[in-house]
Amino acid sequence: QVRLVESGGGLVQPGGSLRLSCKASGINFRINTLSWFRQAPGKERELVADITSGHNSNYADAVKGRFTISRDNVKNTVFLQMDSLKPDDTAVYYCGLLNFRSRDYWGQGTQVTVSS
Q: How far apart are CA 12 and CA 112, in angstroms?
């Protein structure tokens, strides 16, 4: 059974940092691409970053230079380090495993709020 569990969200002031974690189970973690998405109120879910099995990463333009995705194949965990946070980064952040056995899997989401 595939399971993705996020943690690390919270309230932070503009310019601050947060580190999100997503622990995966039920998959051969090291061979899969893992993704972080976010969804703000009234908006569609959007890709933030993803990382391949070879540790190649891809970022949305809005977060380039501020966010860093990484993975630990021993702990079956993918991370999202978020620095220089802005109010526009406020959203529910989801860990995603896309097109795995012909379907997409999502975690429960973690709320990130950037506000003074």
A: 8
Task: Give the Cα separation of 79 and 36 in Å (integer).
Answer: 9
CA 35/CA 78 separation, integer angstroms: 8
Taking only the tens place, the pLDDT of each residue in 4-44 is 999 999 999 999 999 999 999 998 888 899 999 999 999 99
Spatial CB neighbours of 75, under 8 Å, sequence gap ≥ 6: 23
Q: Find out whether 20 and 37 touch, Cβ atoms under 8 Å.
A: no
Residue among 37, 20, 30 nearest 105 (CA): 37
Name the burial class of residue 43, with classes exposed (0-12), middle (13-18) and buried (19+) by CB atoms within 10 angstroms of its CB: exposed
φ and ψ of 29, to 5 deg: -55, -45
Query: Which amino acid is residue 72, in one-letter code?
Result: D
pLDDT for res 19: 98
